[in-house]
Design a protein that fits this description.
Order of helices and strands: EHEHHHEEHEHEEEEHEEEHEEEHEEEH
CATH class of the domain at 1-86 and 112-119 and 239-331 and 423-436 and 492-558: Alpha Beta
Cofactor: FAD
InterPro entries: FAD-dep_OxRdtase (IPR006076), FAD/NAD-bd_sf (IPR036188), GMC_OxRdtase_N (IPR000172), GMC_OxRtase_C (IPR007867), P2Ox-like (IPR051473)
CATH superfamily of the domain at 1-86 and 112-119 and 239-331 and 423-436 and 492-558: FAD/NAD(P)-binding domain
GO molecular function: flavin adenine dinucleotide binding; oxidoreductase activity, acting on CH-OH group of donors
Organism: Novosphingobium flavum
Number of strands: 18
Keywords: FAD, Flavoprotein, Oxidoreductase
Radius of gyration: 23 Å
């Protein structure tokens, strides 16, 4: 039977959008399936320009929803403007043991979490692709930095990443637009660190916000309303960037409210033939066919789809003959941090609200093992002047108090920690066939726990951070030693890890399922390790590389 499409892309988020763009631009007829409703660029951003006084809770959020329908989602950058972009926790169920308490943040609509993401865009260091094989944790990456370098270039030039050239091996430089730079508080902290330490530095963040226009996308307006959606297209999202490129080819078909139940698989040819879909509005089931399938549903949703793809030839799920599917799931250990005031800068101010951070890249365990834990961590944060909201934290009443709050408050800086989590086989996803969701699908069960290594790294990071904060000579306003529950970093990875050995991994070096070479998995599920930085840029580079390989293989008759 003739396939309906050359390729099906499951998911329209950061990787799904990239797969659709790359495949259509290379001549393929593509169906992109999104499990949620359409969220159109500009027209869909219903609260982008809404003033807080026009919202039911004046911008402070619905306290009842934060305890119920948005309880888990509230660990993200959820607010009253963008709450509808996040799933309803009481409708989109999953399981997690109390000992794990995994926080699964999701957005089911066009663009997925590319609308709400933090936009921090960093390359994995060469060392990070070798750490697993060096210290014996997890699965050896089947690729190295050199295999992705040109694809990082390709992605950065398209999405637009602002940053500075630093010549740090632990943080590879890229194809950057002009940096958003430091404000006065950040510059002061950077100067103090430079004067007191030889092994570290504070640098401007690298974020996918435009400082120069690209095509019809305008430059950042420094509103810091990014998670509402940006009608200027000034930050990278599926809506602003990859989707228009794919649509422009005339070869893209979009399907919304299509929940992919499973992958259709032919045991004779050992090929995926399409996907089985549930209509999210009517419940009707259907099958769509293609010669190639790209699974980009989001790390743990993609794993769930593979696990539900059960047949006589794949009784434990497609890609799971070696019991590796669902294992080695990871998320950065997160939330260790502190806030301090910065005295002496009362005459300094800034314009707008810069939607970027500052970072202190990893400085431990680089050339040698020097701590009682493996791998490392990095620091991330921002500085700004306190605004009128500080009045809720200090004593005062009357006209004079209110007048004082009209003026900018003290400078402060907040720094947090992103800690690399070791890949562990026992951290895993499974599905519970005894409990079904509203679509009749078995619930995903997520069991991810941090170990002694992450706790030791957290203690070390906290002590180092407090030492740096004391240099400021200000008041420590808050400090947190404890790691947040897994999932809070919203960097879920693993579950369908890459590798050379089909008995120890799920996909190969080009993201092809070992058991079905025309099925490509290119989201966070394929990551073999986390590094200590935001992974989205790596997902995009892997997807672009896999799409190019898929088209080349198809043209050569290898798929």
């Amino acid at each position: 039977m003739m396939a309906e499409f050359d390729a099906i892309v499951v998911g329209s988020g950061i990787t799904g959008g990239w797969a659709a763009k790359e495949l259509t631009e290379r001549g393929l007829k593509v169906l992109m399936i999104e499990r949620g409703p359409e969220l159109a660029h500009i027209a869909g951003y219903k609260n982008e320009w809404t003033s807080p006084w026009d919202l039911p809770f004046k911008g402070y959020g619905d306290p009842k929803a934060e305890r119920t329908t948005k309880r888990v989602q509230s660990v993200a950058r959820l607010n009253e403007w963008n709450a509808d972009y996040f799933v309803d926790d009481e409708q989109e169920l999953y399981e997690t043991p109390a000992e794990s308490n995994f926080q699964w943040v999701r957005g089911y609509h066009t663009g997925g979490r590319s609308i709400m993401w933090g936009r921090q865009s960093y390359r994995m260091a060469p060392d990070y692709f070798e750490a697993n094989v060096r210290d014996g944790h997890g699965i050896d990456w089947p690729i190295r930095y050199k295999d992705l370098a040109s694809w990082y270039d390709h992605v950065e030039e398209f999405i637009g990443v602002n940053g500075t050239i630093e010549n740090m091996p632990i943080l590879p430089d890229g194809k950057f637009q002009p940096s958003m730079g430091f404000n006065a508080g950040e510059q002061h902290f950077a100067d103090l660190i430079k004067a007191h330490y030889r092994d570290r530095r504070l640098i401007p963040g690298r974020t996918a916000n435009l400082t120069k226009p690209i095509g019809e996308r305008g430059t950042c307006q420094y509103r810091n309303w990014c998670s509402r959606g940006c009608s200027f297209g000034a930050y990278f999202s599926t809506q602003s960037s990859t989707l228009p490129a794919a649509v422009a080819t005339g070869r893209l078909t979009q399907l919304h409210n299509g929940i992919v139940e499973s992958i259709e698989f032919d045991p004779q040819s050992r090929r995926a033939t399409g996907v089985r879909i549930i209509d999210g509005e009517t419940g009707q089931r259907s099958i769509r066919t293609a010669r190639i399938v790209f699974l980009c549903a989001g790390a743990y949703d993609s794993v769930g789809i593979l696990m539900r793809s059960v047949s006589e030839s794949c009784p434990n799920g497609l890609g799971n003959s070696s019991d590796v599917l669902g294992r080695y799931i990871m998320d950065h250990a997160y939330k260790v941090g502190a806030t301090s005031t910065i005295p002496g800068l009362d005459q300094a101010m800034y314009l707008g609200r810069k939607p970027n951070q500052v970072i202190i890249p990893r400085f431990v365990n680089i050339d040698r093992q020097e701590t009682d834990f493996l791998r490392g961590y990095s620091f991330w944060g921002r500085s700004e002047r306190m605004n009128w909201n500080r009045g809720g934290e200090i004593a005062g009443v009357g006209v004079g108090f209110k007048q004082a709050l009209r003026k900018p408050g003290p400078w402060a800086i907040t720094m947090g920690t992103v800690i690399e989590a070791l890949p562990r086989r026992e951290n895993r996803i499974s599905i519970n066939h005894d409990k079904l969701d509203k679509h009749g699908l078995p619930l995903t069960r997520i069991d991810l726990r941090y170990g002694d290594n992450e706790q030791k790294a957290a203690r070390h990071a906290f002590d180092e951070l407090m030492g740096m904060m004391k240099l400021l000579g200000g008041e420590i306003l808050s400090a947190n030693r404890e790691i947040a529950p897994p999932g809070s970093s919203i960097h879920e990875m693993g579950g369908a890890c890459m590798g050379h050995d089909p008995q120890a991994s799920v996909v190969n070096a080009f993201n092809q399922l070992h058991e079905a070479p025309n099925l490509f998995v290119t989201d966070g599920s394929v990551m073999c390790s986390t590094g200590d930085r935001n992974p989205s840029l790596t997902y995009m580079a892997l997807t672009a590389r896999a799409a190019a390989a898929a088209v080349s293989m198809a043209q050569e008759g290898k798929l």
